[in-house]
Specification:
Number of helices: 15
Strand order of the largest sheet: 1-9-8-5-4-2-3
CATH superfamily of the largest domain: Type I PLP-dependent aspartate aminotransferase-like (Major domain)
CATH topology of the largest domain: Aspartate Aminotransferase, domain 2
Shape: globular
Structural class: alpha/beta
Mean pLDDT: 94
Number of strands: 13
Helix content: 25-40%
Number of domains: 2
Low-confidence stretches: none
Strand content: 5-15%
Distance between the termini: 22 Å
Order of helices and strands: HHEHEHEHEHEEEEEHHHHHEEEHHHEH
């Protein structure tokens, strides 16, 4: 019987009240009062030029590629150690994902390998901030400027995390956040696109409104709206926005609790790291993470699987993470260019184990004794 799940979506207690307000209003579509509050909160906390609430982090990535004019013939550099949505957003535009290996310490895109993967077809670099820990963005941004490339951040796991004091998702031209129920702040399914380049704001409004200038019409700037560009239905509905608003109001407290649990894991597992049983996460100086994931790396896949089975026998649900995209069927079909030899990615994927971490896990179990 499972005593401790891997994840338990947190509720603040205000979600139902706010959703009932929407139901009473009789207006359920997007761009309502709760949507505007959530967007304003994101803009204030991150400093982005515009925050667009969307139905998922996946939708945020797809809208990002549209705004960046990624298309057939283009290449986008990204890590293979990420979720399929990161690469799918590129593939759906007819472009090619170019996979690069990750760093051994943070499991983020290895910035020292990016330049070798740049070709005349490269349009953008897509760093993924794994576990809410920032990539080495100074180097990536400098490389992008040198080669006239866009930097599009996958900050799905990175809300309220930062790099040298700058919020993740705001260092490149655009950044994507996720509010999936597995994330620190959630609304079941949801996301946000953070737009940092002012030149992209007007077109973003058109893309999210099915390619129409409807936003201008509602502001009274035009007397009718019509189809002016490509687009899709990227608006989040107002009931979901009401749920999200309850979460955002307590975002700092939620993340502080997660960080407290993360730090307790880190203390309790230090003796096992000293014995060589496992390796704990490494957080570089200048990176403020948000307690999204606590993972450990075992010496090999057999040791990882044995630990996972041991925890399962105790009723504790721990899980591994990404199967490298470059070696998956989709990666072999759609990927191209770059190095097809990604030794760190392959090694880490086989040895990594994620431990339960969620608000309400008031006291971490004695993990060290269970993993001996």
């Amino acid at each position: 019987m499972e005593k401790i799940p891997f994840n338990k979506p947190y509720l603040t207690g205000k979600e139902n009240e706010y959703m009932q307000q929407v139901l009473a209003s009789g207006s359920f579509a997007g761009n309502g009062a709760f949507s505007r509050r959530c967007a304003a909160w994101l803009e204030e906390k991150t400093g982005c030029k515009k925050a667009v609430l969307v139905p998922s982090g996946t939708a945020a990535l797809e809208m990002m590629m549209l705004l960046a004019n990624i298309g057939p013939g283009d290449e986008v550099i990204l890590p293979s150690f990420t979720f399929s949505s990161t690469a799918n957003a590129i593939v759906l535009r007819g472009a090619t994902p170019v996979f690069v290996d990750i760093r051994e310490d943070t499991l983020n895109l290895d910035e020292s390998l990016v330049e070798a993967a740049i070709t005349p077809r490269t349009k953008a670099i897509l760093p993924v901030h794994y576990a809410g820990v920032a990539c080495e963005m100074d180097t990536i941004l400098a490389m992008a400027e040198k080669h006239n490339l866009l930097v599009l951040e996958d900050a799905a796991q990175g809300i309220l995390a930062s790099y040298k004091g700058r919020p993740l998702g705001t260092l490149g031209q655009m950044g994507a956040l996720s509010f999936h129920e597995t994330k620190n702040i959630h609304c079941g399914e949801g996301g946000a696109l953070l737009i940092n380049d002012p030149a992209l704001v007007e077109r973003a409004e058109i893309l999210m409104e099915k390619g129409t200038d409807r936003s201008k019409f509602f502001r009274g700037e035009i007397d009718k709206y019509s189809w002016v560009d490509m687009g899709s239905s990227y608006l989040i509905n107002e009931i979901t926005a009401a749920f999200l608003w309850a979460q955002l109001q307590e975002a700092e407290q939620i993340i502080q609790e997660r960080l407290s649990l993360w730090n307790q894991y880190h203390r309790e597992l230090e003796p096992l790291e000293q014995k060589g049983t496992l390796r704990r996460p490494i957080i570089p100086e200048g990176c403020q993470h948000n307690g999204h994931i606590y993972y450990v790396l075992f010496q090999n896949q057999e040791a990882r699987n044995s630990a996972m089975d041991c925890l399962k026998s105790q009723g504790i649900h721990a899980v591994f993470h990404y199967i490298p995209l470059d070696s998956a069927e989709g990666g072999r079909r759609f990927g191209g260019g770059g190095s097809q030899n990604l030794p760190v990615t392959e090694d880490v994927s086989a040895r990594l184990l994620r431990l339960p971490l969620f608000c309400g896990l008031a006291k971490t179990f004695e993990m060290a004794s269970l993993l001996k």
